[in-house]
User: Fold Roadblock/LC7 domain-containing protein from Catenulispora subtropica.
Amino acid sequence: MSADRQNMDWMLKNLMNEVPGTRHIVVLSADGFRLAQYATDDDTADRLAAACSALQSLSSAVAAEFAHSGAMRMVVIEYAGGFFYLMAAGPGAFLATLADAEVDPGLMGERMRDLVGRLGEHLAASARTGTPPSR
Assistant:
């Protein structure tokens, strides 16, 4: 495992520990590839990354059409039983979390923003070139 990947895993674990109610954490590329994960299995992480790719594309289109900006910063969805968060995390990268209904939504947003700031270049992901990133 690379040093960058180990650092990312450690930082994702910190998010899980700092925000009670967090269930899954995934870092993904804009085209839906899972780059890192914590507290979730590969299949769930891959399905979440694919869904997030579509959601970030839609939210960017809405921002471009109605806010005259193509920059998606954060999407929050409250569903029966919890919350879903998707945050832009650098060029072509996103941070996604799923949390229980008991999570403090403000704390989650704040800690995700802090994490994105700390991860910096770890979260920069280039577009797909034919093969998915190594896992």
In short: The longest strand covers residues 22-29. The chain has one domain: 3-105.
